[in-house]
Amino acid sequence: MLGLLLVWLSIYHAMAEQFQPAITDTQWEVSQSPLFCRLTQPINDFGHAMFEQKAGGDFSLVFTTYSQPAIEGHIKFQVAQATWQNDIERHQLSIMKTQTGQMQFKLLGVAARQALNHINEGRFPIITYTSRHSQQAIHVLMSTVHLKDYLPKFEQCLAQLFSHSFEDLQYLTIHFELEQSQLGDNEIKALQLIVDYLKLDASVTKIQIIGHTDNHGKRKLNQILSEARANSIKQFFLDKGIEESKLVTLAKLEQKPIKSNKTQQGRAYNRRAEIILFR
Questions:
Q1: How far from chain centre, in Å, is Cα 182?
Q2: Furthest C-alpha separation in the chain
Q3: Where residue 244 sits, what CATH number does that domain have?
C-alpha cells in the first residue's frame, strides 16, 4: 500500500507544486488538557496541519504555514480518494477567501469533522491556494500514515473535554430576591460551573464580584445589602477552594441599574451581582 501511495503522490506532484509530510516518517503529536485537544502533523517545508477542539468551541482543522503566505484569492479544502480506490477525484469540503499575507487557514465545525472522518478512512485532506512565492496554485496534503496510532488518544481527550470556554463563563449575573443576599439552587449551580472551570485554568488572575440593589429602601441599607450580595458569592468561592487573593468585591448599591426602577420587573433585574473573570 505504501508503494502505491508513493506512486500516486509522484504523479500528483508532477501536476502542481505540492507540500506533504515525509511519507516514510510521517509524524503525529497529541497535545491535551481538560480545556483543549490537538492532533498535529508537521508538513515538510510548509508548516503543519492540526485538528483542534477547545472547550466550548468549534471543532477545527487548521493549516498553518511558515513559508507560503497566500495572496488575495480563494482556498479550497478538499479530500482526495485513497490510492487503492483508483480515483484521484476530490471531494470538496469548503471554499473560502484568502487575504494577502494570510498564514493560517481554518476549517470549522461539521466540515472539519468530515475531514477527520475521511483521513481515518484512508483519504487525504488537501488545501489548494495561490502562494505569494508561487505562480501557480500549491497543494498541501496530509498523510494517513500512523494516524491510527494516535487517533484513540485524541478521541479520548475529546470525550473528556470541559463543556464551557472562558468566554462562556467570563461574565455571569446572579439575581436575588427582594432584600435578600442568599444564593438559590440555580445560582449555586451556575457558580459551581465557574469553580470547576477555575480549577482547570490557572490563567484566570482575578474574579471581580459586584453587588447591586434596586432603589427600594434607604441608601445605608442598600450599601449593606449590596456588600452582602457580593460577599455571599465571595464566600461561596472561598468555601470551594478559590484563592482569596483572586477575589475582589465591590458594592454599587442602586447606582448602576440595567433596567428602569419604575417597574417591579425592572427592579427585579437590578437586584443582582455580577461576576467577571480576568486573565
A1: 34
A2: 84
A3: 3.30.1330.60
How do residues 54-76 score in pLDDT, each as one tens digit? 999 999 999 999 999 999 999 99
Bridging pattern class, strands 247-253 and 206-212: parallel
- As a whole number of angstroms, the distance between CA 153 and CA 112 comes to 18
The domain boundary residue, chosen from 129, 159, 189 = 159
Grid coordinates given for 154: 485524541
Residue-number span of the structural domain to which 170 is assigned: 166-278
Helix axes 147-159, 109-120, angle to 10 degrees: 140
One domain for residues 117 and 245: no
Closest alpha carbon to 52 in 97, 104, 121: 104
193 shares its domain with 140: no
pLDDT tens sequence across 23-38: 788 999 999 999 999 9
30: CB partners within 8 A, 6+ apart: 37, 38, 39, 40, 150, 153, 154, 157
Residues 117 and 181 in one domain: no
For residue 174, what is its C-alpha cell? 446572579
Last residue of a domain, one of 114, 139, 159: 159
